[in-house]
């Protein structure tokens, strides 16, 4: 079954199409854009990339934080120029979150903006990176510190790609799905994977439509991300993004309770949701709270002090100037596990076994 989620942004509106085989509509999308040339940047085998219907340059890419850099963006833009890509042509990403982010930023910068179409091949990229127009790369100082807003012209979330993923990569995407539970989604735990993807994308689209550039409500999408990004950096990305966000979600529940915003039952619900998806819920044993607090001060939401998106009686909201000593105390009270145990994925559910996915 094919599902379409519109992202309504005036003349920059586009559709996110979800379902098996939807990548084959790429040529139709390219034709609609009136592009004469395309550059496809793919972290997947050539046979995974559908025809564009126009003259095409295929560039190899690698997924992984090691390539999420400005030097990668510069190299891509150099290839665009050598190919003769113009502002009226199109760039296509085919890969996971790193490829989606890097290609999106390169498209935003080249000729001050060229159309981009995303073919996200990982669960994380389908529910998060490909939708909403945020593009960014990392600096040694932290994650996603250099970026731009550049909306895609279309997103084709082909669920057939997901059958090729290792179980830990499914887990990585489930971290973003789990946090939706606390920012306005219905309980997604009883749904098929395709329904969870659609619900997550629908939630994100609705938020982006009213706040494209993080002026207010879009902060909700960062639930669990403040600590999550710090954990990724502190572990040199041994923790994947979704795993770190899951730990950050559990922490967000505990911090909200320490601030008197939610009761114990709601704190327990954070843990129950994260554990349902087989996600880690403890801090790595060898990461010190002081390191994490120092890293969280570099978060983009931290303008005058530590800031977190936290649950409350009226729902989640951005809470600024959270005392660092309180954050440290809540971190100290978090359970601890060895890093290798956290990333083992032994309890990962197998959503791919759900025939209703398609």
Question: What can you tell me about this protein's structure?
Answer:
The chain is of the alpha/beta class. The protein contains 12 helices and 13 strands. The chain has helices at 26-32, 70-83, 97-109, 123-129, 167-179, 193-210, 225-234, 241-258, 264-276, 289-296, 324-333, 339-342; strands at residues 3-7, 14-19, 37-42, 55-60, 90-95, 115-120, 134-139, 142-149, 154-158, 283-284, 306-310, 317-322, 336-337. It has a 7-stranded mixed beta sheet, with helices on both faces. α2 (70-83) packs across α3 and α5 packs parallel to α8. The longest helix has 18 residues, at 193-210. The radius of gyration is 20 Å and the shape is globular. Mean pLDDT is 93; it is low at 352-358.
Compute the CA-based radius of gyration. Answer: 20 Å
- Secondary-structure-based class equals alpha/beta
State the strand order across the main sheet: 1-2-9-6-5-3-4
What gap, in angstroms, lies between the N and C termini? 6 Å
**SSE pattern:** EEHEEHEHEHEEEHHHHHEHEEHEH
Percentage of residues in strands: 15-25%
Low-confidence stretches: 352-358
User: How many strand units?
Assistant: 13
Report the average pLDDT across residues. 93
Main pleated sheet: 7 strands, mixed
Q: Could you estimate the helical fraction of the residues in percent?
A: 25-40%
Helices, by number, come to 12
The general outline is: globular
